[in-house]
Fold this sequence. Notes:
- The protein has ten helices and ten strands.
- By secondary structure, it is an alpha/beta fold.
- Helix 2 packs across helix 9.
- The two termini are 31 Å apart.
Amino acid sequence: MISNACPPIFVINLERSADRRAAMAASLEQLGVNYTFFKAVDGKTLDPSSLPDYDSLRRKLFFGRDLSLGEIGCLLSHRAVFQHMVDHHIPCAVVLEDDVTIANDFPAVIQDLCALPVAWDVVRFLAYEKVQKAAGRDILALPTKPYRLSRIPTLSGGAYGYMLTLKAAKTFLQHTKKNILPIDTLQGYVWRTGLETFILRPSPVSSDPDNDSTIGNARFIKKRQLSGWQKAVYPFTRAWLKLSQNIGLRMAYWRTASRDKKEAGKNTA
Length: 269
């Protein structure tokens, strides 16, 4: 059982997805951890034009299309967790989506993260092979083998599992006002949020390939939703976006190099 000093676990689940709720409950209870289901926002019920926290025009100018209803629902679901943390002064929490597979040593990993000597704001659980094999810097090894805290210089998707502090929750709330990004993309915008963001290698949480995402595969849709002047300026706004992303990632990674090297040295001494 996770000690009282360790964070609560919030599992985001659509009310209509009872089968997923049951499967996650069985998995987490087998691990002996405390958890709470957090009611997800159903994107199918939303009208994007009426949402004050979504900027449709800016989204289309930079990405060529709106966020899907599923992506907006997912964003608002995670945002609700952040607001809950702020409202109840929760120092840190684990957030899971309801379609994940969890390693048996997950409770020990969470306890390790609670006691880390390295200051962090977000630890993302990203099991994608591309992310796990990405170039990066290992900061320290966790007591639970073979996990390592690492920083990577890539913009990686996936918000199905992560741990965050109250500071991060407040920051994400601020950055989701008039937002145009899915929540997982925002977590990768470390040059904008300024948050100390890491991953674990390997990841104790992975997205279950047997479950179809309730968000859908909107990010793989290439058809643009542009016309008139929007279509004319899009090549320029898109080029600026890609350039700013590349510069932002490189600068953020470079700025943390000396600090990471110092931390790695302390923890291997």
